[in-house]
Protein: TetR/AcrR family transcriptional regulator
Organism: Streptomonospora wellingtoniae
Amino acid sequence: MARVGLTPAAVTEQAARVCDEEGFDRLSLAAVAKRCGVAVPSLYKHVGGLEALRREVGTAAAAEIARVLGDAAIGRSGADALRAVARAYRDYARTRPGRYAALQQAPRPEDDAGAAAVFYRSVEVLASILAGFGLPDEARIDVIRWLRGTLHGFVDLELRGGFGLPQSVDGSFEVVVEALVQTLRNWPRAEDPEQEPDGSAGLG
Amino acid sequence: MARVGLTPAAVTEQAARVCDEEGFDRLSLAAVAKRCGVAVPSLYKHVGGLEALRREVGTAAAAEIARVLGDAAIGRSGADALRAVARAYRDYARTRPGRYAALQQAPRPEDDAGAAAVFYRSVEVLASILAGFGLPDEARIDVIRWLRGTLHGFVDLELRGGFGLPQSVDGSFEVVVEALVQTLRNWPRAEDPEQEPDGSAGLG
DNA sequence: ATTCTTTTCTAATAGGATTAGCTTTTTGGC
DNA sequence: GCCAAAAAGCTAATCCTATTAGAAAAGAAT
């Protein structure tokens, strides 16, 4: 019964590795216990159970990707910042696919408020970049949702093997990022409302 | 031992309902067997196991959404078709969330070629719509990846509860769709390559 | 040194997936 | 109509994982 000196953080880290190496859906207490060199029930002294462990991994990953995105944005602004952050986002998902999957579990209302704050940090990075594009205030949230969706969707499809054709996925991503940049540059401003010639819902 | 008259299709349908009502990750043979009014091992006469059943649901969903998207596109073209298909896509995911999750499992190489073809049908719908926008040939695949990613990303984040703020998600989606339309209209054509004034990778 | 707390363990329970093998129903050929 | 073969269902058994309960050992604190 030699003590291993486990901590909640250590357990979460091993769990995160299981996620990255085997897939988020293959995360099990059994696999984590084996890595920690401990019997399965011992984990319960450090985490609340499998469900709780999944959330721990997600929260840790949210903190991690926020730092990665923030670092990518340092010293850049506008389109440059957007390009750097978009690439950092995709790189994170590709190098840490299990953690990336884990952070798609949105914090539940009953989770502590700190968890929600951690998840929000990445959004703040995007928001600060968008500030440089001079968008109308009402468009803020819509634009962030659009940006998050575009990045997540591309990366998620890529990770799941959804892009089957042989054409370079790196190239496609560059195209997507440039499309984002152009769309932001052309975003309808208050001064040119006639960008909507067809009476549809409009962008703002 | 009265026979229930189960078929592979019936089992898959019940499984799909479990996915929609309880979540794709909660799909279990136990839940499906209960719905079918049958003991768990009986299911093995109709499906290969849990893993195979997941894939059956995914393939059935792929066929279903392809039909839904195709129907939405009938009688429309260009931006109108894109709007209709985008809304149909989101509606499908919202009304059939478990099936939508199931169809994110890309067919594996060892699956039969028919399965891959089914998954490809939705892509063909998108491709046929894009044909109306007169895009350069080299951009085809990149644009389809961008479009799929944008739709999937938005819808996936929405389904997972990733849009926490009170602002209308319907409204944001309309904005996203209009952004797609505008981006396609402004897509760099061979005749105006100077749309890239900053020496970056470019859109094509 | 002794006591208290914490970590780890073993044992036991419960639930799901899977396989083996038996029974009943249905079907097809005669 | 009858009989064999196939198909569909069942029970029993095995294995794996999660979880809880409670004992034992290690470490910390007095």
In short: The CA atoms of residues 48 and 56 of chain A lie 10 Å apart.
